[in-house]
Design goal:
Its EC number is 2.7.13.3. With 410 residues, the protein is α+β, with helices and mostly antiparallel strands. 66% of the residues lie in helices and 9% in strands. 23% of the residues are buried.
Length: 410
């Protein structure tokens, strides 16, 4: 394990990285100078009053291009990616009313010109420092008799000038680094998304990723259902048929052997029934073959209490939403049968305004509490997996109404 560097060593390392002959200060200078070059139109407007209004209008109309150039500068010279804001389809002048456009205008009209002044001072410091530090080099190129020429190398004035140039060359790298850091922070803050926009974009990304996870999970359930239906279920069915055939045709076997065949036949039939229930729980075949309407009719037919259906399913519902609707209705009817002590259930499924509205009403005792562990929490999570909502109205004495709204398309 390498030894921990001492504070002195860290200071010397940082100073070496800021030396005038190192790459860091020159890279910082190039970075801030490139930003200053993009502010030339505004400084031209300031220096030439007649060009003020035309160039200001040009800057406002070309905010997108100027911002793209600044983002490219940050990406190429600084390795920083500043995301672009989404286009809203409005004209350049109308887009100025948005907070992001106002931040861009403030950057190009105020912040960028001020940063350009700092870049000019850094360049001026480099130039002056080089000239002063090399005074002995270029002074002897002057003609004899000039005011700055001297035969004595140790003229106090020239020594002081050289020392001043060296000090300036030692200070400018730090100034360039500080200015480059300030430039990066200001550009990030004013051309990039603010905190609210970052959170909004994060929510959109999470919603997209969640929709992808839900679709992938539904596709996986479909695959498992197909594999079980075409593989294990077919083998169990063949086994049950062979055992049944042996049970009916073999008459001369001992009673103990026949009892083994009978038990195996019944176990195979029970395994087939359990496997069918498992397949139906993963993804019902009827939902994919005949649609949500027929699948809900099958749920109502298998319910342990009478269910009155009113189903009008709009076309174009996403398969994942259909699966969520199917399992939501199935779980809701199971909860009613277990807890509501109801004699009948009304089930309504209708599409309206791009939303699928599911209403389950029973005439039970009421008092259903989503926090009471009655399965309503699971229903709410299942609906929320596709950005749906669930509402429960269940006064004591009933009736209980569960309303679920799902988006038709993810």
């Amino acid at each position: 394990m390498p030894p921990t560097p001492t504070p002195l060593r860290r200071a010397l390392t940082a100073s070496a990285g800021r030396a005038p002959w190192s790459a860091g200060p020159w890279h910082d200078t190039l970075f801030v100078s490139a930003g200053a070059a993009l502010s030339v139109p505004l400084w031209a407007a300031v220096l030439v009053p007649k060009l003020l209004f035309p160039l200001l209008g040009l800057v406002l109309l070309s905010l997108g291009l100027l911002s793209a150039a600044q983002r490219s500068r940050m990406r190429v010279l600084r390795g920083v990616e500043i995301p672009r804001r989404a286009r809203d389809g409005r004209g350049p002048l109308r887009r100025l009313h948005s907070p992001a456009a106002r931040r861009q205008a403030g950057y190009h009209l105020v912040a960028a010109p001020l940063l350009a002044v700092g870049a000019a001072l850094v360049l001026y410091g480099w130039g002056v420092g080089l000239v002063l530090a090399t005074v002995y080099g270029w002074e002897w190129l002057m003609p004899p008799g000039s005011r700055v020429h001297a035969d004595n190398w140790l003229v106090p004035q020239e020594v002081l000038v050289t020392l001043a140039g060296l000090v300036l060359l030692a200070v400018v790298p730090y100034a360039a680094g500080r200015l480059a850091g300030l430039d990066e922070r200001v550009t990030r803050a004013m051309l990039g998304p603010n905190r609210a926009e970052q959170l909004e974009r994060r929510v959109e990304d999470l919603a997209e990723s969640r929709a992808g996870v839900v679709d992938a999970a539904d596709a996986e359930r479909r695959r498992i259902e197909r594999d079980l239906h075409d593989g294990a279920q077919q083998r169990l069915t063949s086994l049950a048929m062979n055992l049944g055939l042996a049970r009916r045709t073999l008459k001369d076997v001992p009673p103990e052997a026949m009892q083994v065949i009978v038990d195996a036949h019944e176990e195979a039939q029970a395994a087939i029934a359990e496997l069918r229930d498992l397949i139906r729980g993963l993804h019902p075949v009827v939902l994919e073959d005949r649609g949500l309407d027929a699948a809900l009719s099958g749920i109502a037919a298998r319910a342990p209490l009478p269910v009155r259906l009113d189903v009008q399913v709009p076309p174009g519902i996403a398969p994942t939403v259909e699966a969520v609707a199917y399992f939501t209705v199935s779980e809701a009817l199971t909860n009613v049968a277990k807890h509501a002590r109801a004699s009948r259930v009304d089930l309504s499924v209708r599409g309206r305004g791009g939303r699928l509205r599911i209403t389950v009403t029973d005439d039970g005792v009421g008092g259903a509490d989503p926090a009471g562990g009655t399965g309503l929490t699971g229903l709410r999570k299942r609906a929320a997996s596709v950005d749906g909502t669930l509402a429960v109205h269940s006064p004591l004495g009933g009736p209980t109404t569960i309303t679920v709204e799902l988006p038709c398309v993810l």
